[in-house]
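Interim report to the steering committee. The following record documents the input for Brachyurin-like (235 residues).
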Amino acid sequence: VENCGPVIENPARIVGGNEAVPHSYPWMAAIFIDDAWFCGGSIISEEWILTAAHCMDGARTAEVVLGAQNIDKYEASQVTVYSTDFTVHEYYNPSLITDDLALIHLSEPITFTTEIQPVCMPAYSTPGLEAGELVNPSGWGTTSDNDFYITDVLSEVIVPIMSNAECKSIYGVSVTDNTVCIDTTGGKGICAGDAGGALEYVENGISYIRGISSYGSSAGCETGYPNGFSRVSNY
């Protein structure tokens, strides 16, 4: 997709988790599924949203809100599109949480605006990021293990990549070559409601989606255990 992955100057980005500058992640989609649960997703073209398989597995309907900063109120930038057309990866394993990605085909093409833009996709087999390189997960998920509800506003955090070897020593067979992990030391990472959202990496001034938010530790979001993402460049 041409003109994908615009980088919005964002001096407020602070490691540790904070509200994102409005519309600095214009590809982020808020997905309300079967009026029962919530996930994030990423715009990859005028008709397709990329998200996690465990979000869409068995789903019937999806309300996809685009161009949002605050999902609890109407904003002029928001566009809502519905879908009943989902494709879950054929090898998705809900027990191991592997190949955890899905596509949502929107019922009508969207028109890109300043606040609604696609993220860039890395080329197939793009080399993985090295441990320690910084990436940006974002989402409307809970900000604490004590929270019961997702947040109204889009949040972000800057975290380092963790090596797959170190991540595999914690999660075992759930970590494969198709997984990318982040170091959440200090409780900085994804939490409930962030599933399906993008792991962004900026390269040469362009934002690429390098992972799809998949899982964290059952011990909690703030315990410092790594988070796992589906490695987009392997698909």
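The two ends are 17 Å apart (CA to CA). The committee is asked to note this result when reviewing the revised timeline.
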